[in-house]
Structure formats: C-alpha cells, structure tokens
Fold:
Amino acid sequence: MLSIENVSKAFGGVQALNNVSLAVAPGSVQGILGENGAGKTTLMNILFGLIRPDRGQIRLNGQAVVVRSPRVAQRLGIGMVHQHFKLSPALSVTDNLALAVGRNFVLLHRAAFRDRIAALARSLHWAVDPDSVVGQLNVGQQQRVEIIKALLGGGKILILDEPTAVLTPQEVDELIPAVRSLARTGITVIFISHKLSEVNRMCDRIAVLRRGELVFAGPMGELSAEDIAQRMLGAPSALSSLGASSASPGLVRLHLSRVCCTLPGTRKYKPLLNNIELSVRAGEIVGIAGVEGNGQTTLIDVIMGSLPISSGVITLDGSDLSHLANFRRARQFACIPEDRQGQGLVLSLSLTANLMLRSYRNPEFTRLGLRHVTAWRAQATKLVRSFDIRCAGVEVPIQFLSGGNQQKALIARELYGNPPVILAINPTRGLDIGATAFVLQQLTAARQRGAAVLLIHSDLDELLAISDRVMVMYAGQLLPTKWPVVDRAAIGRMMMGITPQAA
Amino acid sequence: MFWLWTAMAMGAVAFSVLLVLAILAISGYPALGILHRWIIGAAGNRFNLAASMADACPLLLTGLAAGVAFRSGVLNIGAQGQFLLGALVSVALTTRVIFPGPFWCVIVGAMAAACIAGGMWALLASVLERYRGVPVVLSTILLNFVALYLVRAALHGPLQAADTSAPQSPQLKIIYWLPILITNTDFHLGIPLAFAVAVAMAVVLGRTNFGFELLITGLNPRVARLVGMPVVRRQFAIMFLSGCCAGLGGAVQVLGVTHFMLGNFGNYGYTGIAVALLGRLNPIGIAIAAVFFGMLDTGSRFVEESSLALPHQMANVVKGVIILAMLVASAWMMRRGSRVRSPEAGVNQNPADPQQVQS
Structure:
C-alpha cells in the first residue's frame, strides 16, 4: 500500500502541487490524469526521489519513508520509466540491464542473469529477447526493456511517465495488456497520461489533478469520459466548436512543383521527397497525414530552405524562393517546429526574449538602435495575456514553464502579426485537451484571417477536424485524398502504403 | 540572479585571499604585513593604482575576447594567439613598415591593423570549423602555437633589433608610444580605451539586435535559423569580434607598456579566460575582474620588492585558488538550480556557464 499524504510543492511562485493525498492499492493500475502543468510529473518525481516535497509525506505499507534520491526509491521498490529511455543502443538487452544493476556488475553471473531476464519476460508474456541489441528494437520493445530494468531490483511499484507519448497506436495496443499482466503479478503500476481513452482501457482507478490539486480520485468508470474531461479542464472542451472553413480560399500562396530532394552524396538511395506537387492557398488549411518519418520534416526543411532540393521549384506568391538567402527565406514563414525545445525556444532565456525572437527586428521594438526594453516587456505581457500563458512573470526563464505553456509561447510568437503563410508540424504533440483545442483554434483563426496554413500532423482526428484538404505522405510522396473524407480507413490504408484507389 | 552571482564572486575572492593568507601564516610569513603591503602595492597611491590599471588593460581586452565568444557558445581558447598576432602586427607597423603620416595616424593605423589581424586569425578557426569540421576549441588552441612560433620567427628574422642576437624587436620611437595621461604614472591612453571597448561591448551585446542575434546564434543555432537570423554570418562575426579584442590588447600592450616585443610576451590570452569566467562573461564584470587581477599582479610585485622575501608566484596561486573557488561555487549553484528546476524543464543548455566551458 502506497499512500501520499498532504504533499505540496512550489517552484518559484508557481504552486505545482497543493495538499495532494492519494492511496494506491497493491496490484492495481492507478491512472493519473491532468493537463500539462497540472502537477502529474512533479508528483511522480517526488515519489521517485528526484524532487523533495515542501510539505507532506509518503507512506509505504503504513511506514513513513523519506525518498531522498532515486537510489533510495529503488531500494524501497519504486521504479520509474521516463519518456526518454536511458539505454545504450549499441549493447544487448542483457548488458544494458547488467549496467543498470550496477554494483554487482563485476561479480555478475552472466548466464544466470540472462536467464533471470528471460524468465521475467516470459512470466509477463513479453517477447523480449535478452540477446538482441537494443538499438535494433523498436520503441515499444525498448520501453519493455526499461520496464524490466525498473523491476529487476525487486520493484513493487512502477511509475510510467506518459509511456504512450512515444508509441505508435499499435504499440499502445500492445502496451495495455502488457501492463495488465504486470498488475496481475502484484505490481502496482502508476500510469501518467492525458489521454482519456488509454486510461480508460488500462486503469483500475484514476486520480485527476488540476493546477496542482487533486480534483478526483476513485475507481475507473465512476465518472464518464465527459465528466473526467470537465474535471481536468475545469471548463467544457472546445474541440467540438471547430469546423471546416466556410470562407472560400483565395490565391495560391505557397506552391511546390515537381520537388525532389535527395541527400547530397546519397543519390543511389531513394529520394527523401519524390515529385511533390503541393499548393496552399490563402485562407485554407492543407493537412498532411502520414506515419512519421515519411518525409514530413524534410518537406518543411526544403520549404524553409534548410535543405536543398535536387529538382523542382518552390514559389511563394509566384516568385521562386531559391533566389533568397536562407535567412531571408525563413522570415517569410511562421513555423511551429516539431521539436519545440530544441528548435523553437531558447530554454535558458527569459519568456520575453523567446516571445521576441521574431519581432525584435520590428522598428517599434528598438529605440536609437538599442532595444526598447519597456516596449519588449509590454509586448511580452500582451502576448502572455492574450495567449493565456501561465507563468510567474515574463522575465522567468522559459525552461521553468510547463510544456503546454512553452508551446503556447511558441505559438504566440510565431502567429503574432498575422503571418501570411504558416507551417506547423505536430503542433499539439504532448499537449492536454485544453491546450490542444487552443492551438487548433489559433490555426483556424489564422485561416479566417486569410493565412495559408500547411499542417503536418500525426493525429488524424485533429487533422481531419480543421483541414480544408488532406493529403497523405508516404515514402516521400504526396498522395491526394478525396474530400471530404468519409472513409477514414482509406486514409489509414494510404498511410500504410496500400495503393490509394479506394480513397 | 545577478546579485547572487556577484555575491558568489565576492565570496570566492574573499575565501581565496583568506586561504592564501592562512597558508602564508602557517608557513611562517607575516601574513597581515604581507596583506597590508599587497594592498598598498595594488592601490596605495596613484602611481601604484595606475600600474594596476596598466596591468589590467591587456587582461581586460583578452577577457572581453574570451567573454564575447563564450557568451555566444563559441569556445575560443585562442585569445593568446590573437593577442600575439595583434602585438606582432603593431610592432611591424611602428618599426619596419611605417606608413607616411602624422604620428597619431600611425598609432591608430597600427591598432586598427592589430584588431583586424587578431580578428582574421580567430576567423580562421571559424572557417576551419564551417568548411572542414574542425572544432573551434581545437583549432584555436593549436593556432596559439602557430602564432607563438610565427612571432618567434619574425623576432629572429625581419623584426629583430639590429643590436642584439636575442629574439626581440627594436624599441618603438617615442612618438609612437601611447601618450601617458597622468604624468609620472603608467596610466596610458590604452587604459581608458580598453574600458571604452568594454562599455561598447556591454551595449552592443546586451542592448542591440546584433547582440541579440549573436546570443541566440550561440545558444541555439537551430532557433536562430528558424526565425531567420543569418546564422553563419553571425557565427563568423562572433569570432571576428572576439579576435579583434584580443588583437587590440596586443597592440595596446606594445604601444602603451612594453614599447618593444620579446619572444616571450606573457600569457595574457590564457589569463583572459580566467578573467572572463570571474566576470561571469559580462563585459562590465570582466572589467572589474581584470582590474582585480591587475591589482593582484602589481601588489605581488610590490610585496616581492619589499624585504618580505615572498615569491612572485604567490599572485598566481591566489588567482588559481580564486578560479577554483569560483568553479566550485558555480557548480554548487548549478546543482542547486537543477534541483529547484521544474520537472518539465530540459537540460541547461547554456554553454556560457563556466562550469561547462571548463569541461
């Protein structure tokens, strides 16, 4: 029995957890739901000893424990699987796990250890081969290895931090029975997510956090999905109010004609982009569906000019973009990149600096050639207010903001000043329902203002909800679909590369 | 945050001085007497203060060179080579190839040429990185040696003074010396010039769009590219600017202090890195740190000249302890910071942190 009692934690001025109490029964799967920044990860990091609570305590089988560090957590039988795996891709599963066991490495009986792993995998009905090299496993299998790693030391409590964020839908389908079989062996699983459907299929009990407070804890099924969403958000979801555009699209803004892209020096391999024909008109959202890794990022890179094309023409408002220097070309587009922390934001700088990364050139923000500090702050404050970015102040480094608020800041920056052409890749990845609806609304609002939007998205539901036209990207090719889509299965087949007659 | 770092720097300095004094006391030296002499020697009268300033001057410029680069994530360890090259060019232009014109034209020309020479020397490393993938850390270190032997070759060859077989240049004509601004002291024109450069750097880096672009380009070039900054140009600009500062430092040292050049022309470039770190990579902080280092040097010479028989190297020991104390303190603050940091936050990606610069 694990119980969390009256735990509170504040970061700077932000109360991440406020007096949260929760009891988890052994052998159950406990779902923890909440928006980004609701405090889920903070709570788990406290359990795992990465963060110490300001107040409150943790009891394990009735005994109060102080989880001072992850090592202490492991000794207490608490294991955690993070979103980003900590495995060495060049080593075998056995070696990776041996490394994790640590101290006994020198005296490790390798064969016995290997058999132990195999036995553990077998008891869970998992197909994990101890001898396979980790780098050759798919993400779902690597996750299993991580889970085994967390359990090897005799772990009784397993924390899974948004385990499905990195998985394909199929892998998610495989994870659910795997977790259920873990629970049958008496292991307590704490499952963090913001996807209702997964929690629904996996958990016995759920707890809902909102802005650091526990707003619901009880058995799964006591609340309807609608009720859970309402508790998470505190307000009804706005997704349903989004619809396809009624306005008719205008002139062609962005046009790609017979564009091919081959990596330099790799001519013999198949091209990254093959004969792309694409036009995006003012006032429309063109959606591109597809399984990731089929050339979507390359498409954005060639439009922005960071990758050269091997043939074809890319025009913006009729003029060839290849004549522009790369940096001038990048200024033509608003871009919501896939990797917001690596490509969209400078984490160590303030929210203000991050919000000004595009508009700093604007003359209204300089005075006598110098930064107009008050104008910067006023602009940042304005964006914070109109995009509802929750922060302890505009001078706070953006790394202290939650993922959802970081994404809001990025979108506030990119969409400010009504950019005529918007490129977006997976703009709602990792966001909760509220933030997702907000992002999609911003994109439809931009369309209403006459922007041309190219939306590359791996979430088909969201893509279909707001796009005016949808194409499917597969193996570097763009396949048109009939619109409006009635047959989602047809799109699914095209995404898998099955010939598109049916679409 | 700013005040915290300032307090930390002061604490590190105080701790180091106390530690060194304790060591002296244990070794049987009159520690308090030495401290007293040291302070007098560093700042006891206007002559000593001016000498400290003159010592600080080249350190300020090489410190700025390191600071500009580190702040933008470019690990230019080559201030030493850029400094030497600047000194070499300014000696050449004031002793061998003198352009016709009034003396101040020659001085300004020599300093400008030294700037450009330092800048180009630094730029070489950037070009090597961009087109040949050589890491700047490596190429700048190695170019230091190239510069050193280039200087020695020149001082044995075309620049060697006629009346000696040692590797040294002839002395500059007095009209090409930087004017002394306070009579009977070492306070030459290069000192206010160096401080002016520091202020200009503070303004350019901290308050202009150009400086903002340098910062972003350094911290995260992918973001810079996304928002349409000319990344390559800015990366080159960082290096050029950095090399310019170091080159100017060389010229100012030759024209203002030594008035000729030796094969062994000091370690100002390397010490500049320490100055930059102590100054938290902030131009004003670097100026303060440089003055402090200058005082340490001048003070220790004064102690040495007195009857106290203290080895000159003591100043270097103090410097070393200070840098170590700073690094320990900043590592400690970093760890504290990461524990406070919210869970969603990524790794600290600021390469300008001294802890990471050192590693």
About this structure: The first helix of chain A runs from residue 40 to 47. The radius of gyration of chain A is 25 Å.
